[in-house]
Every structure is written in structure tokens, then in C-alpha cells.
Structure prediction request, 139 residues.
Amino acid sequence: MNAAPDKTPDSTGPKKDAGWEVGVRETVAAPLPVVWQFLLSAGIPIWLGRGEFRAQKGFQYAMADGVRGEVRSYTEGSKVRLSWRPEDWPHDTVLMISVKEVETGTTIAIHHEELADRAERRMMLGHWKNVIEDLAAAF
Prediction:
């Protein structure tokens, strides 16, 4: 399946209660259940890294590249929210991946908040743009 042309950088800048944040989204021409199942199985290495991950509240994960965290919330067929911290960062951040059914398929959204500053936001914007492109390429 091919990705639809909706590639939209999303949130920008600092937020009063969540530090700096960034968001990206893309719509793929696939039904939501197919996209959701992929994101929580074969797609995990694309958006989170290699390692054990279960979309279950309270599950603590540690990926091969040093990213660690805990699943904070999970809504079946909709979103998973987790803490996210690379091993060389002194602070946790919050990552959310979500899906939404749209007329042309399913929109995948990645939202990353509680980033420390403009430089961290810029770095993560580049990272998540690559991730969303790789996820869309899987369809």
C-alpha cells in the first residue's frame, strides 16, 4: 500500500506545562486495525527500537540502543503513551504514538513532550520525521 500525501509537521515550541515538544504525523492508505497491529508488533523497531515491548500500562522497557521507559497509558486501537529516556539524557520525556481513521486511510501521529530545550527539540524533530517516513514506507 502507498502512503497518502499528508505529511504534516505538527506541534512546535515550548509549552508552559510540558517543556518543549514536537509532533509529526502522516496518513497511510491502510485501515486503522492493520496500522495499529503493525505499530505494536513488526513496527516497534522502527519507532521505539529493538527490544521487548508490551503495550500494557506499567510495563517497563529497555531497548537495545539504551532507550528506556515505562508505559503510562494504553488505549486499544488509539494510542500508547510512555516515558522515553535515552541512556545519555539526564531526564525523562513523554512519547505518545496514536492513530486516527480518516477518509483516505489512517493517520499515524507521534508526539514527544517534556524536551529540555530548543536544541533537543530540533534534534528530535529530525529523528521523528525520519521515523514517520519509515513507518509510512512500511505501507
Remarks:
- Confidence is low (pLDDT under 50) at residues 1-11.
- DSSP finds three helices and eight strands in the chain.
